[in-house]
Write a structure and sequence with these properties.
Length: 311
């Protein structure tokens, strides 16, 4: 069983030139996607059609026990890869033109490569991209918390780890040249990686049950969020309101909120105390932000609301 890179590249070019030479813009190869025993020769990865006829060339087949995927990448997908918002940026940045319909197609392709590399050097852009990965990871974690299926849990944990690792690569201005392989080793060499993140990452294959998966996912997300807070770009503070008549009006309105709380705590009504206390806290947070006041806190006492209200 052998991987025939050269022969398959020649077959792909011949297929394009004989069946749809005007319907395909580029054939792209990559040295990175082979398993070690297949060598590191550049072999076709995908082609870029410009019409429905071009897309029809896509096919999967097996030769001597080895599977090949001759797949079509839309230009729109390639443009999305240049945004750094997918984990297979390597397919663009390490892509090698094996065949081209014309020079314009080559320029379009290399232009997208240049754009992706420029974005990797833009710290503010990379930070915003990493936030998107974090948001997706948090959404997956919401599902993981309630899903007791071990297969789903392992898949969710692996996806969360992948999203956050890709984001760390982006924050450090790099991409993973082997895709998901050996990411922990690459992370060890980077400057901006949360302490203990890689050690947690290496524990993933040893997660025995759903609860292990949940704990590891939580740890990865918590560590990543901490780094994002440290790296958050400095921005000008928003203009604060100087309409103190509104602040005075809020104080007058708020006096009745406190009257409610005094009444319910005095009566030992824990439920109403908590409900109105949280509503008041939302108002306090808004006012503090709007007028530049110090944070105010009404609901984080050490004892339970029930114990507080019973006094």
């Amino acid at each position: 069983m052998a991987y025939h890179a050269k022969e398959m590249n020649e077959w792909a070019i011949r297929k394009i030139e004989t069946e749809a030479p005007e319907d395909v813009d580029l054939l792209i190869g990559s040295p990175q996607w082979n398993v070690p025993e297949d060598g590191d020769e550049i072999s076709f990865n995908y082609f870029l059609p410009n019409s429905d006829r071009g897309f029809e060339l896509a096919m999967d087949f097996i030769v001597e026990g080895v599977g090949y995927d001759f797949w079509a990448m839309p230009w729109e997908r390639l443009e999305h890869l240049a945004t750094l918002k997918e984990g297979i940026t390597i397919s663009l940045l390490d892509g090698v033109v094996l065949w081209a319909r014309n020079d314009e197609a080559v320029k379009r392709f290399t232009g997208l490569q240049d754009l992706a590399r420029a974005r990797l050097q833009d710290a503010a852009y990379c930070y915003q991209t990493a936030l998107l990965n974090l948001d997706e990871a948090l959404n997956l974690y919401k599902v993981l918390v309630f899903d007791d299926n071990l297969s789903h849990a392992r898949k969710g944990l692996s996806r969360i780890a992948s999203l956050l690792s890709d984001a760390l690569g982006t924050l450090n201005g790099i991409y993973f040249k082997r895709g998901p392989e050996n990411q922990d080793q690459v992370l060890d060499t980077l400057k901006h990686v949360p302490e203990g993140f890689t050690d947690t990452y290496r524990q993933i294959p040893f997660a025995r049950d759903v609860e292990d998966c949940r704990k590891l996912a939580h740890t990865l997300i918590a560590k990543f969020r901490g780094l994002m807070a440290e790296m958050k770009p400095r921005t000008d503070s928003p203009a604060l309101s100087d309409n103190y008549s509104d602040l005075a009006s809020w104080y007058e309105e708020g006096a009745y909120w406190f009257r409610r709380l005094y009444t319910y705590t005095r009566n030992g009504d824990a439920a109403k105390t908590l409900q109105w206390g949280c509503s008041l806290q939302a108002e306090l947070d808004y006012v503090a932000n709007q007028y530049g006041l110090k944070p105010m806190d009404t609901v984080s006492g050490r004892e339970s609301i029930h114990a507080e209200s019973g006094r």
